[in-house]
Amino acid sequence: MELLTLICAREGSKGIKNKNIKLFNGKPLIYYTIKKALTSKFIDEVYVSTDSIKISKLSKLFGAKVKFLRKKDLSHDTTPEIKVWKDAISRLEKLNNKKYDYLCVLPVTSPLRLTKDIDNCIKIFKSKKCDGVITITPSSKNPYFNMVKIDKTKLNLINRTKKKIFTRQKSPKVYDVTTVAYVMSTKFIKEKSSIFEGKLEYNIIPKHRSIDIDDKIDFKFAEFLHQKKWKQ
């Protein structure tokens, strides 16, 4: 099966300015995702989808390939990521004159992933009859116990059950979706508008490797764990 490995890194970022190339322990954040991808035994080449000439140049310097600049209308903070994937698949299949069977997407915002996390996702995809594999981690909050929504002036649990739950341990087990890796069928991506429309398998990632950098606090915490070489 032919694999396309993709890193999506647009220029704009509201939470952290120039997040994708902000120095993370001395190197641009995108460096860590490119280098980790290239250590996978399943990945021979890595492509970056970006609207930025600067990100393009840095990506190439770190060993990735950039064959086009992403259109601006696919580079807004409200643009669904799956649209960027569709665009990259279509353009790279034409440019490379080949068909890709599956897609491995590695977001820049998870710099603490290990090579084995990527490889395990690919192995699961290859061994299971599924449309895709996502990474998840045990959630620290639970919608059946300590997550609420505001209904007018009243607070209610997001998910109520007939049976009263008084401890987190008695609550149904829930997980956060992480940005460590997505491995998806390209046929499925071309046809659907959400990854949750298909049959998904999962790879559970420990919490200390599953941080998704969204704001300055996430960034500093991830840097701290990286500096301390937290137990892998």
The end-to-end span amounts to 30 Å
Radius of gyration: 19 Å
The CATH topology of the largest domain corresponds to Spore Coat Polysaccharide Biosynthesis Protein SpsA, Chain A
Q: Give the spatial strand order of the biggest sheet.
A: 4-1-5-9-6-10
The main β sheet shows up as: 6 strands, mixed
Note down, in words, how this protein is organized.
28% of the residues lie in helices and 21% in strands. With 232 residues, it is an alpha/beta fold. The protein folds into two domains: 186 residues, Spore Coat Polysaccharide Biosynthesis Protein SpsA, Chain A, CATH 3.90.550; 34 residues, no CATH class. Strands 4-1-5-9-6-10 form a six-stranded mixed beta sheet. It is globular, with a radius of gyration of 19 Å.
Task: Write the SSE topology.
Layout: E1 3-8, E2 23-24, E3 27-28, H1 29-37, E4 47-49, H2 53-61, H3 81-96, E5 102-105, H4 115-127, E6 132-138, E7 148-151, E8 154-157, E9 175-185, H5 186-191, E10 200-204, H6 216-227
Parallel strand pairs: 1-4, 1-5, 6-10
Antiparallel strand pairs: 2-3, 5-9, 6-9, 7-8
Give a short overview.
The protein has 232 residues and is of the alpha/beta class. 28% of the residues lie in helices and 21% in strands.
